Amino acid sequence: MTENDENDKKMQRSNPTKLKLVTFTGAAGLLGLAVSFAIFAFNSHKQKSKKKGLPGCDTVCVNLSAKEILDLADEIISISTRVHDAVALVPLNKLSYENVVLPLAELEARQLPLIQSCVIPKMLSPHDNVRKASAEAELKIDAHLLSCRCFVDSMIPFGLLSSWIELMMVSLCKLIRKREDVYRVIRIYAAKGESISPEAKRYLQCLVRDFEHNGLHLTATKREEVDRLRNEIDELSLRYVQNLNEDSSCLFFTESELAGLPLEFLQVFNRNSLDKTQNNEFKLTLESNHVAAILELCKIAKTRKTVAMAYGKRCGDANIPVLQKLVQSRHRLARLLGYAHFADYALDHRMSKTSTRVIRFLEDISSTLTDLASRELSFLKDLKRKEEGELPFGVEDLLYYIKRVEELQFDLDFGDIRQYFPVSLVLPGIFKICQDLFGIKIEEVTEIDVWYYDVRAFAVFDSGSGKLLGYFYLDMFSREGKFSQSCVVALQNNALFSNGACQIPVALLIAQFAKAGGEALPLGFSEVVNLFHEFGHVVQHICNRASFARFSGLRVDPDFREIPSQLLENWCYESFTLKLISGYRQDITKPLVDEVCKTLKRWRYSFSALKSLQEILYCLFDQKIYSDDDVDFHQLIRSLHPKVMLGLPVVEGTNPASCFTRAVIGSEATCYSRLWSEVYAADIFASQFGDGHPNLYNGLQFRDKVLAPGGGKEAMELLTSFLGREPSTEAYIESRSKYSL
């Protein structure tokens, strides 16, 4: 009997009801023990702490103490090291799926909930010591994962990277491995061409790709250069963001120069950074919320232009050289890894595949929307002429005059509309839409351990068979110390293990709704839309039935990831839904009237062509700087801007290269992806759910053909199978034309 066998028996004696062994044979025995120990260690924490978790879900623990978090982090690192060491030591003449691929796949599946149990408290715990321990644990785990290059972006956002938040919140990572000994074993096994299932083959291909994207197939000299370039890219990206965060530019205006801004705006920001000087002027710092308010509400054209110019010039002298060097470094990295330029590297394993296809996608939509956008722009120019005379219309006028038209044409008081959306109606309404659409049943789970008193948990069942599909938590209200963004986080992914056991998915939805006097306040309409969107991620996570954790949950093609949520958003604007989720104040029998429902849909698409062109402009800028060498940023924006924006020139002296964080970190060469998903979601909704009512048959088809396979199949293959054709841009264009001026 080995020492490990003796330890195994001791574990079973000390915790006979909780220990669940994953059985391996032969060379995989040590791996099975390591994974089993992970489960034992975690359940020991739960048993000692007397935590009551989700029924039948032993591996997710949401309320560990500070000490338990740090202890568990050490165990995670130890187990991960042992498993990788064991794979590396498998004799080359005995390599098999069972002792090479399967141990890594099962470790990956079991490790995620353990890691999340350690790092999620940093975002949500009400206790300072627990948040501190969680942050410390995250650093330890990250250091380990980086040391063996098993980088897991477990959907925890980085403090400075606000432009990366949404991506990080709805994704579970690429695994980027850099253990050469493990790579050698995997590469040799892959070369054998052993017959395995299609999903297992895809997983093996992903393992090899992850290693090689990190340069493991290169010579030692080139690997050193890859490391150097990655470090340089990280340093340049951080410097770019820090420059913007530290920018202290400000402007001074008299009250008359801020005409149109409501008194409460001046009062609120006067207490913060919009301060009055001794000359009776307001000091305006260039924070995005201040700038947006000026551009949308200020009646004075000169003020709007001055603010737009100052905002667009931020950090120009400092950041444009940084971005130039950053782009060059990314191109060099891509070429070392076998790509022509960085865009090809970034897009290689996405739906879009190539930069050429992305640019064609963007330019096709732009040209198709040109006529509609021209009519919209003419309408705005006419209105400005009536209100301000013959002053030229600039891009800095767009927000203000779009807002003016909405005020004149739409009888919408969003303050009053808010009174129609109490959480007590909106949430059950969303549940009903999803239940009727996807064939699921949602039931609240009570008397379980949570990290805050108003956190709720729910179980999701298949409505036909009654089978448990997964769980989700709702942490819906803002509070001190809580992470400040709305997002969905994967706590555990679906996975099928070698012994036949199935690990069910668990998701967490974090929102930021307000309370007053302990009671939930009604939701603004934008909050309703956001809740639909985020709950789409919950449904996507739970309905993903991929056998490998690598392909389940939200770990799907990034170009596809937002499509289910964008699809669900469409129901927010349907009369059927709005009446279901609304009730005026205390009289919940009084929903929104038909006319308001219709007006909300018209409002959704007001000036949507112009808004789309603005987004396309920045997506093209991002794509072009990463798909060509030695791009002159100034020349590029000066040629792109009037071409895309119907002759409107770029604001004098500005260049997005100086303050375009999405193109620097988080969405570099992939800024198009949000529009890509919105376009294809519009196609799905119009062709399959066009009447606005939940269609159970088509909803089940979407669940089975699109959501269930997850990342185990190519995303374009899934959509084509569901639609019976390749997705199209027509519905996106038609929806905007239908509600045009």
Describe the 3D structure.
With 741 residues, the chain is of the alpha+beta class. 56% of the residues lie in helices and 7% in strands. It has 30 helices and twelve strands. A five-stranded mixed beta sheet has the order 4-5-6-10-7. It has a three-stranded antiparallel beta sheet with strand order 1-3-2, covered by helices on one side. Strand 8 (495-496) and strand 9 form a beta hairpin. Helix 16 crosses helix 25, helix 19 (423-438) packs parallel to helix 20 (525-543) and helix 20 (525-543) crosses helix 22 (563-569). The longest helix has 34 residues, at 355-388. The chain is globular.
Q: Unreliable segments (pLDDT under 50, ≥5 consecutive)? A: 1-28, 149-176
Largest sheet: 5 strands, mixed
Rough outline = globular
Radius of gyration: 27 Å
Total helical elements: 30
Beta fraction:
5-15%
N-C termini distance: 81 Å
Strand segment tally: 12
Q: Fraction of residues in helices?
A: 55-70%
Average of per-residue pLDDT values: 87
Classify the secondary structure makeup into a structural class.
alpha+beta
Q: Please give the order of strands in the largest beta sheet.
A: 4-5-6-10-7
Pfam family, one: Peptidase_M3
Domain Peptidase M3A/M3B catalytic: 296-735
Transmembrane segments: 21-42
Organism: Brassica napus (Rape)
